[in-house]
Amino acid sequence: MGLSTHVLDTMHGSPAAGMGVSLFTTEGDSATLVRRFVLNADGRSDGPLYDNNSLRPGTYRLVFEVADYFRGRGVDLPQPPFLDKVTLDFGIAHADQHYHVPLLVSPWSHSTYRGS
């Protein structure tokens, strides 16, 4: 299945539908944009970010546009917001395995893990 992501809005107890996300490949301090997408009604990308045929070992970055999402939901955030964008840097060691990168987020906190 390759690489996938899913975001849950822990403030509202719902998927983060409409959140903007950017995927990058990274090498040292350099990052190359692979694609930008908006999460669907289930808080997921439409299809895998990479399938098993195109996923390669290496380092990657997901950038989640958290403040824009919560503002869009009508949350009155301070300026500057506590969390603007949440950046997750992670490594893919085994391209033949599935890597799922979920994000649980509120305007004040976030957590992630390698999901299934």
What does this structure look like?
- By secondary structure, this protein is mostly beta strands.
- The chain has one domain: Immunoglobulin-like (Sandwich), CATH 2.60.40.
- It is built from one helix and eight strands.
- It has one helix spanning 66-72, and strands at residues 3-9, 14-15, 20-27, 30-38, 58-64, 86-92, 99-105, 110-112.
- It has a four-stranded mixed β-sheet with strand order 2-1-7-8, with no helix packed on it.
- The protein is globular.
- The protein starts with a strand and ends with a strand.
Topology at a glance:
Blueprint: E1 3-9, E2 14-15, E3 20-27, E4 30-38, E5 58-64, H1 66-72, E6 86-92, E7 99-105, E8 110-112
Parallel strand pairs: 1-7
Antiparallel strand pairs: 1-2, 3-4, 3-5, 5-6, 7-8
Any key phrases for this structure?
four-stranded mixed beta sheet
- The averaged pLDDT comes out at 96
Q: If helices are DSSP runs of H or I spanning 4 or more residues, what is the number of helices?
A: 1
Helix content: under 10%
Output the CATH topology: Immunoglobulin-like
Which structural category do the helix and sheet elements fall into? mainly beta
Determine Rg (CA atoms, Å).
14 Å
Question: What are the secondary-structure elements, in order, as H or E?
Answer: EEEEEHEEE
Strand order of the largest sheet: 2-1-7-8
Q: Tell me the count of domains.
A: 1
CATH class: Mainly Beta
What's the CATH architecture name? Sandwich
Gross morphology: globular
Largest sheet: 4 strands, mixed
